[in-house]
């Protein structure tokens, strides 16, 4: 459990740190809002392209060794992206490399949770998501102060230290872990093609896509949106921190509501509607920005836990969970990459953040519909 939580701690800080210094990067590199949106979406595109391949890596070397190798690559990618005096090439390539490494862990860890804690998927997922969100939140809040004292490269590069800790912990884990032969337990798994033809798998995938779209759009552009409302940059960074911290508590709080239940439609609809209310409030009454951000954080944190829990709860075996994890995160993050990019393009075309925020409400409405299907008590396949 400890090693799973330690590796979770280093899966988001290098991404959320970007939103806090996106303005500094733009000034230093000359990139405009649209290009900065694309740069912010590079990890999501990496998630989409690498995720379908992770189950092959896990089958060849085991999910634990796959996570170990990915952690080493994550350290290298973070260092490359944040090289002092680095070129545009190192910025873009380093971002793509670290995104690819995180993708491996994103897919492998839910399968490991399904394998090691089959009866407590919601609880362990809640703890995993809480740690992941905690470090992501601290990265949002601390990156800009660090960058102002040194450079934006230092602000985003310092979070690579968490990956070093994760590497050490995972090396200790590999001394005792062993690969489990699930076939010997009598559990047959589906093949990759049938997973891609399963309606339930697509429903889980679309829930992953909608929650990821709104989260990454907000975590990338929220500080910039607040600055446009008159909030000073450092305060805006800490508001982004609060947005994610509230999500941690919400993610843990939703876990008891899911334990012992397999139908999650009510939970999914409620947290989706909450997001729509929060963004509408931000548009109508921006003076209450802190209230709306906290409500959005509750929805975001809860949605992440539900999305990850659905991977395990809609799968019959650990290997199926790995395949569903790869599928849902591949397609889900590919679609969600349109969030940061689309918001940058909309702002660049209109000069207003109103339209990107209206788009968030639209995605929230889509998540309501998806919740009614993905939340049902169903497996990806009726028989195995």
Describe the structure.
It is a single chain. The protein has helices at 2-8, 13-20, 22-29, 33-61, 63-81, 88-116, 121-149, 152-157, 160-173, 192-196, 199-228, 233-258, 265-284, 289-313, 318-336, 338-350, 354-374. It is mainly alpha-helical and 384 residues long. Helix 4 runs antiparallel to helix 5 and helix 11 (199-228) runs parallel beside helix 16 (338-350).
Task: Chart the SSEs and their pairings.
Elements: H1 2-8, H2 13-20, H3 22-29, H4 33-61, H5 63-81, H6 88-116, H7 121-149, H8 152-157, H9 160-173, H10 192-196, H11 199-228, H12 233-258, H13 265-284, H14 289-313, H15 318-336, H16 338-350, H17 354-374
Helix pairs in contact: 1-7, 1-9, 2-7, 2-11, 4-5, 4-6, 4-15, 4-16, 5-6, 5-9, 6-14, 6-15, 7-12, 7-14, 11-12, 11-14, 11-15, 11-16, 11-17, 12-14, 13-14, 13-17, 14-15, 16-17
Strand content: under 5%
| End-to-end separation | 29 Å
Helix content: over 70%
Return Rg in Å. Answer: 20 Å
Major β-sheet annotation: none
Number of strands: 0
Overall mean pLDDT stands at 86
Shape: globular
Which sequence of SSEs, written as H and E, runs from N to C?
HHHHHHHHHHHHHHHHH
Structural class per helix/strand content? mainly alpha
Give the helix tally: 17
Low-confidence stretches: 179-187
